Amino acid sequence: MTDTRDSSLDLTVPREADVVIVGGGPVGSALAIELALRGIRPVIVERRNRIQTENVRARNTSIRTLETCRKWGIADRFRAARTLPREWHTGMIVRNRIDGWDLCPPIFGGRPIWTPFAEWSEIGAEAPEDLPQYVLNRVFRERAEELGADLRRGFEVEELAQDGDGVDLTVRSVADDSTHRIRAKYVVGCDGGRSVVRRSVGIEQIETEPVGRLINFVFEFPNAWEQLGVDPGVLIFVLNGETSGLITPYDGDRWRVGIGPVPVDLDLSGYDLIAETKKFIGKDVDIEAVSFTTHLIQKRIAETRRKGRVLIAGDAAQAFPPHLGQNLNTGVGDAVSLGWMLAGVLNGWAPEGLLDVYSEERIGISHMLADASLAIDAGSTEVWRELASDPNLEEDTPEGALARERVGQGINDVMGTGADGLVYDHRFTESPVVIGDGESGPAFDPLRYQPSSVPGHRAPNVWLSDDLEHPLIDLFGLDFTLISQGDPAEAARFAEAARAEGIPLEVVEIADERVRDLYPRDLTLIRPDRIVAWRADRVPADPKELISRIRSAGSDQLVAA
Ligand SMILES: Cc1cc2nc3c(=O)[nH]c(=O)nc-3n(C[C@H](O)[C@H](O)[C@H](O)COP(=O)(O)OP(=O)(O)OC[C@H]3O[C@@H](n4cnc5c(N)ncnc54)[C@H](O)[C@@H]3O)c2cc1C
Prior knowledge:
The protein has 561 residues and is α+β, with helices and mostly antiparallel strands. It has 3 domains: 16-83 and 131-208 and 300-358, FAD/NAD(P)-binding domain, CATH 3.50.50.60; 85-126 and 209-297 and 390-417, D-Amino Acid Oxidase, Chain A, domain 2; 425-550, 3-Layer(aba) Sandwich (Glutaredoxin). 30% of the residues lie in helices and 24% in strands. The chain is built from 15 helices and 24 strands. Strands 1, 2, 7, 8, 9, 10, 18 and 19 form an 8-stranded mixed beta sheet that branches. A 7-stranded mixed beta sheet has the order 5-4-13-14-15-12-16, with helices on both faces. A 4-stranded mixed beta sheet has the order 22-21-23-24, with helices on one face. Helix 1 runs parallel beside helix 9, helix 9 (327-346) runs antiparallel to helix 10 (354-388) and helix 10 (354-388) packs antiparallel against helix 11 (398-415). The longest helix is centred in the middle third of the chain and has 35 residues, at 354-388. It is globular and about 75 Å long. Bound molecules: flavin-adenine dinucleotide. The site of flavin-adenine dinucleotide has 33 residues, from helix 1, strand 2, strand 8 and helix 9. Flavin-adenine dinucleotide is lined by residues 22-28, 45-48, 57-60, 133, 156-157, 190-192, 196, 216, 295, 314-315, 322, 325-329, 331.
């Protein structure tokens, strides 16, 4: 589906580009920012004339995505775009119906919603945020264009063909149906789940059988809080004998409810979404349908993310249930990873083999999150069914009060544990561009994030002041960063070797016990995507060999000087 004409649209496309990003959604825009910051001006080809607001998908923006916004200089702008009052954004309310009983105190009450189990400041330098995806997309796109990305709206990529030197894209204008050609050195498909790019180059997906379907229903609920007579909040989990799931306001009078899982083959033509929604609300209120979408509960993961000069990222490369709220955040992680690697290839200091590293590293994350999301879906559906079967749950009797206490405890047991390890403890210890030092770091725990500077781990933040104003990550450069806590001559030797190989590097000399606790080696090398690449107390005799390992899988030659 395309949108109506817009007279401000540029009806041309450039004939050549270093990088064409197909799709100006959140992930395409994020990748454009990462490239533009490194001097590459990508062309974004986006088929829609405007960002759709009729439907909202992601809202949960993670600590890591916000840290990325901080690096891009837009964290404050991002928060200022919030659509609902700040004071509504705490804890998760748990009720039998919105206008019914609290089954337990708000989960993670008093803390920012989407908060992990630990305090956000123990995990990173920015609190998580709740923002409708279309607002996030607008903020990202604005930043990409400010930095020089060339966004062409109203053009649909129809097919592509590659040879050894580049990729030819066939692009159709949705305004006048004219067809255009663009020749690019590299193409990245950030074109969502049905990715034309992925299909054009024949990348297969590993798929599991769908186990159900989720319905995402958006509706207008004018004067909701007056109609309901309860205090406002952003995140409300409802469980009763008829239904269960999240029902949430997200922008003005707009609300969304997640209904299901329903059977994969359920005939939706006779399905009354308004009546289903009222089972969450608990009384007969005025609501009006805006839109609905459905998605299958399954995992679909691309078997590779690179075919020659064509790459994929975001939903084009992975799909899994949104139970952890990490699909978009993972796509932003893809963009952060691919951004520096592709820029390294184009800027002439990294071989093309580095793009295979992007593929390998990110596929591992996709499978881990997809499997965890499917397990959460299976486990929680079972638990909710069992808890909701208590016949006294909605009775105004002492037995009812006891039932609600038991059910509330059951919900809290499932939801109050967090998934900080799954969301924040991503490790690339087996990566060919990570050089281990023999230590393995703390054992992985899906529930807890464990900061560690063992190579392959996310470079942990350290607060350099007690007021939570000065995080260590602010000292990291855009590209490689060497944290030096020992003899400056050693760091200088490494920096000189990096310079000779064209590797962009900043050295941060620091003497601070808080940093030393988490970064016990004199030298810690941090990649542009803030993964620890190597650490030691001394630079090896021949640093050139070390540098050649951290910039490539060693497969291909440098592309350009
Ligand atoms: C109900 C629901 C709730 C969710 N909640 C969360 C959450 O809380 N947190 C989270 O992290 N994730 C969540 N997600 C997932 C999130 O919405 C996606 O991961 C995210 O949209 C992926 O972004 P993307 O840029 O890869 O793809 P998309 O957002 O799909 O963007 C793709 C873009 O490519 C364009 N395009 C497509 N084909 C072409 C073509 N041929 N030519 C030109 N342009 C093209 C499209 O118009 C679009 O703009 C949720 C998803 C759903 C369905």
